[in-house]
């Protein structure tokens, strides 16, 4: 069974210099691939941020007490 990629044609006015810089940084062959990779990175970053925020919330709700056993945080 083949999977269909949901694509749509969009028309944007984008900074060509930014696209070229992103294309080089992402090592993408085409501008479309560059934009897709950049969007994938943005989505992954948002997911990672949400996971970190959830973990921090669970950590603080756990009621754990952190002690400065070395005395280095008194500054």
Describe the overall structure.
The protein has a domain at 16-61. It has helices at 16-26, 31-61. By secondary structure, it is mainly α.
Low-confidence stretches: none
Write the H/E string, N to C: HH
Radius of gyration: 21 Å
Class from secondary-structure proportions: mainly alpha
Strand content: under 5%
Q: Termini, distance in Å? A: 63 Å
Counted beta strands: 0
For the sheet with most strands, the description reads:
none
Shape verdict: elongated
The average pLDDT score comes to: 90
Percentage of residues in helical conformation: 55-70%
Number of discrete helical segments: 2
Descriptive terms for the model:
75 residues, 56% helix, 0% strand
List the topology elements.
Layout: H1 16-26, H2 31-61
What's this model, at a glance?
This protein is an all-alpha fold.
């Amino acid at each position: 069974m083949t999977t269909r990629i949901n694509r749509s044609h969009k028309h944007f006015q984008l900074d060509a210099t930014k696209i070229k810089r992103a294309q080089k940084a992402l090592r993408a062959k085409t501008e479309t691939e560059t934009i897709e990779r950049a969007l994938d990175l943005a989505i992954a970053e948002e997911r990672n941020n949400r996971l970190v925020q959830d973990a921090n919330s669970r950590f603080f709700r756990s009621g754990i007490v952190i002690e400065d056993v070395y005395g280095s945080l008194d500054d």
